[in-house]
Amino acid sequence: MKSMISAKGSCILRIQSIIANLKSAERRVANYILQNAELVTTITMDELAAASESSYSTVDRLCRKLGYSGFRELKSSLMYDVFNNNNVGTIIQNISVGQETSTQGICENVYGLAFKVLEDSLAIMDISVIEVVVQQIVKANKLCFIGAGSSGLSARYAYSRFFRIGLNCTSDIDSTLYTMQAALLTQGDLLFVISSSGRTENAVEAARLAKKNGATVVGLSDYAITPLSKTCDYNLFTTSRNANMFLNIDMPLITGQITIIDLLYMCTCVSLGESASINYEKTINTANQEKTKNS
To answer: CDD domains attached here (predicted)?
Structure first.
């Protein structure tokens, strides 16, 4: 399993996204870091263990679960967050829209949140994983995009992008149908699963079926340790849902998903070269002809 994880910053995002899945001792360390981020950048591993009433081995284990080689790398990442502490969670908490809020104020709130979601998403991105996923997309015999709820909208969007450059694509948002489709995928095919939580039961089952049959499975979800991320061959992540109040706000999630899909689409176009342009032009010409007929 490969994940889109960068060592640059995003320590707080990482902690918030997996804290619910940590063991009690690890959670104590994680909570201490979140509550004393600036202080932790100045203390030793032993001091953190003592302050959080845990042990040296617990701190080390947490560092590795977060994707760091050790405490030194965690501190370096945390330091980046401390000096750039205007995170998404803070922005969401500060959003206050009422009847008295001006249109200008609403615009500033919505755009500010969207900008920060994309900034945080970029902070946890590993370009090497993006490149590998693009390679898998280009060589796939068949691409199948699936998702449920708001993630289903992203799956349909991905389909609408990739089929126009000549790739063999399907898409479905019906859980029964996409599970059956996944069961028919074989080696050389690619299943692209979009799930905000990474815990949608049918989506995870579809990923397991496709992987069992030898297909490559790519997951797009929030940055978290989830059943989906553990199943997929490659994982791409938006800003962590567990990090803030995203349970009740779908817009930031979709913004991150669509942006990553666009990134993959553009990289795939570059990889395919002239053939992508030729196929795209064919779809434009066909659409224009249909408009002319109906006008």
So the answer is: SIS_RpiR
Per-residue model confidence as pLDDT tens digits over 25-76? 999 999 999 889 889 999 999 999 999 999 999 999 999 888 888 999 999 8
Longest dimension (CA), the chain: 75
Determine, yes or no, domain membership for 1. Answer: no
Residues 54 and 141 in one domain: no
Residue 148 and residue 28 share a domain: no
Q: What tokens were used for 166? A: 């000549």
Residues 43 and 14 grouped into a single domain:
yes
Cα angle vertex 217, ends 216, 223, to 5°? 145
Strand partners, 145: 171, 192
Range of the domain at 136: 127-284
Give the tens place of pLDDT for each residue, 280-293: 999 988 888 877 77
